[in-house]
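Step 1: inspect the first sequence and its tokens.
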Amino acid sequence: MPDAPRPPEDLDLRLVRAFTVVAGHRHFGRAAADLHLTQSSLSRQIGRLEQQVGARLLDRTPQGTRLTDAGEVFLPLAAALLRAAERAAASARAAARPSRIVVGYIGNLTVAPAVRDLRRRHPDAEVRILHLHCKEPRAALLDHRVDVALARLPFSTDGLHVTVLYDEPRVLLVPVDHRLAGKEAVTLDDIAGEPIPRAPDFDPAWNAFWRADPRPDGSAAPDGPLIEQDEDKLELVAGGQAVLIVPGGAVVSGLRSDLTTVPLEGVEPSQVVLATRAGDRSRLVAAFRRSAETHLTGPTRPTTGPAGPIAD
């Protein structure tokens, strides 16, 4: 009877991490410097990993280092394995420190009333706040950088529990000398020919929502310039290159006299939500959700008039 196959060795995460660094640099020397190892020590680590995996993962060439076919397959799985290990450790730390919570929020959304209420109800808790870019909430939650996130839909909610806190009307941001400035309200028909910027590397649903694309008749929203930096938004509008659809609550102090907003009718409002990890049973997360539902009920400032900085 043939011998039963030997079970594979357990993978050493330290070796897996070393492999991903070499794969990223495509060069043993640079990877060794990054890892503060000698090249010979790094080579031995990669050799041990290849023994554990049972396949050659890297080949050295005169031009540097390249992944073998097995290495190409292994690399994304190795990266996912390291992320899973980091999340497991973060979850364990969070369970060991139930009196700590990190509250994330995107620009121009106010978390202070709920944070104050949570601190009053749980004076021994450590409550931290962290500003997030508007495309970060889901990743920040799943990576355990934050425990709750105040954000605006739309964004991917897979793996999350989402509570809608309130609706915000969408408004149109234009220069003060624009033909639509000063109107009581406008519709999408009024801006049928107006270019609206696009944000690269965003969820397509986000761009579609904030560009009202497609329009109710099925036509595409006119393309405007790409927004490479958030700070460019206001200058593009002020310069007459585009108009922006923004949340009504995004107008804040620090007024700009060259911009104004006009109510936009015939479009659904944006929704401000509190997102948490699905299945998170932390008492502080549950307490913060209750505080948010009680105290975060919508902006109290005016939504028309000269415009200040616009939310992420």
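Step 2: inspect the second sequence and its tokens, then contrast the two.
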Amino acid sequence: MQVVEIGAYGGPEVLRLAERERPVASTGEVLIRVSASGVNRPDVLQRTGNYPVPPGASDIPGLEVAGVIESGDVAAMAEAGLKVGDRVCALVAGGGYAQWCVAPVGQCLPVPAGLDDVAAASLPETFFTVWSNVFDRGRLQPGETLLVQGGTSGIGVTVIQMAKAMGAVVIATAGSDEKCAACKALGADHAINYRTQDFVAAVADITGGRGVDVILDMVAGSYVAREIDCLAEDGRLVIIAVQGGVKAEFNAGLVLRRRLTITGSTLRPRPVAFKAAIARSLRERVWPLLAAGTIKPVIHQVFEPAQAADAHALMESNRHIGKLMLRWS
């Protein structure tokens, strides 16, 4: 089969088309003939040598796919309500940039009604991540206020729509007026241009000094101290990436006085059972919203596999709004 592999750690140019043996599904797994693969920030980190592949996972990048089940564990499929020939999207620990990909049955979801495979493949990585971190760890409730950093990223466009659908007030930050307008078009109640505004002051103004209940942060570093200033009493800060650095200094006294929670997680190394539980929640709570069009995939650009380097370069430029995708013929 044809794959996109990482020839050596480095820039986007190290990505190359190659031939690999087709994988074989084992117990609890299915083999998917892939129509489309999502391109995500962790793929870039893997390419640069900053995100090690979990033990047992494929070294081929790619964490989400969509396509047709060709074979697999029949009993496990039956238990999950799936069968050979079904169109599915799946979260995987690696191997997504390929014409065939093995996925745990528990991490597969049916393609939502009305979506093509490119749209479906844009869902798993961000939707699993958002549900796990914003709703499970962050415990966002209807009527609460969420601040999302990077509102036009793949994660951002997902969390804006999902949080609004669940009844939250959403404040998003973005790096241009155009991107702020895109956040509002997706449903954000407020959008802050972090290049021209101090987001701490803006949050205080928007909330009347109360602060927000939950923050989803992909920056960390120096942002942590400023985000603690943005939190309301009993607020929760959830860190899912460290683009601004792994070290942070903050006022621990505020954490004590306001009873704040600082948490975070990475999804890729978690066990199948953990991810399968997220999949069940998504199928029950979010998939009907996708089928109804209440939440919509946001695709910025679709690339051919031979253009994977261009997709990575665009992601690193931060010029995109929404998801970047690979489409397999």
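Step 3: confirm your contrast with the notes below.
Residues 32 and 69 are 5 Å apart (CA to CA). The longest strand covers residues 29-39.
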